[in-house]
What we know:
By secondary structure, this protein is of the alpha/beta class.
Amino acid sequence: MKINGVPHRSVRVHDDGRSVVIFDQTRLPWAVEELVLPDEDAVAEAIRSMKVRGAPLIGAVGAYGLAMALRRDPSVENLERSAAMLNETRPTAVNLRWALDRICTAVRNHPPERRADAAYAEAAAICDDDVETNRKIGEHGLPLLREIAARKPPGEPVRILTHCNAGWIATVDFGTALSPIYQAHDEGMNVHVWVDETRPRNQGAALTAWELGAHGVPHALVADNAGGHLMQHGMVDIVFVGTDRVTRNGDVANKIGTYLKALAAKDNGVPFWVALPHSTLDMSVRDGVREIPIEERSGTEVTDTTGRLPDGTIATVRVAAEGTVAANPAFDVTPARLVTGLITERGRCEASEAGLASLYPEKA
Length: 364
Ligand code: MRU
């Protein structure tokens, strides 16, 4: 996607041929700052602190982290130790484990002196695959928006609600849930996006609203709790969200609050669609509610919030009384029965074992 007319990917290899360059997402939307990650420890820290985030992107950056580790020490012991260290940084999105496994498989049979090059090549392939996958997700989601647009009186927008950030900055490019929206806007469709602010870290306010604004897509930021009201009053035509892990039976882990949106959508007859790349599928898990590990993050993300002061400085301020204890589960699981369908790079399917098997027979 473009920033000020210049095409960018969310991760690229530095000119030194070794480090990777990312956008520091903790600085957005106030500043577009690149950050160089020179080694696997810097990659791990950037993922943990959410300077890079979004399921597909942490997979891609984690893959480069493992390549950097191999450049330093190509032994199998270091490969396994570094993969385990990177994998522990964030537990819910399965894309990280998927990408690290892909690197391990790609390098294991090479002699030590060839392993780092093989890992960099595989990480680049993961990035290219993500870009093409997300472009296709856009193509397969677009007809859903076209169908709604065809039923609308002239001049009325297709109104989409989204949660968290499943845009280009959460992936290598194009995004997942936002990909069909970008394609719809680019073909001239009248779309309007309700953007959940997504407390506690405000990925909707800071990232999705910034992305959509930069691309010229009409949108309005809403408090997380507004979605039910908007749906009740017929102001949402469809919900599009991304996901961090989809189980064999179609359960969906995504940013905390997604489940409540799915409940409200069900109660109001609003279609609730989930966009995912193949790297987000975890066929080893059946019952998402019981089996997907839910990341518990620091309570300070709830008691505090970060923003820009009138003098331009970025500051974190406390919003809860001193001494308040906070809990911070970062994800929830939406059971498959609340999901209208899944949008993948291979097409759309029911959120069920049979649906997923129809698109991914080799994984079934
Ligand atoms: O904690 P985050 O910001 O990494 O969580 C991101 C989400 O939950 C996204 O919706 C998900 O990763 C899909 S990204 C295409």
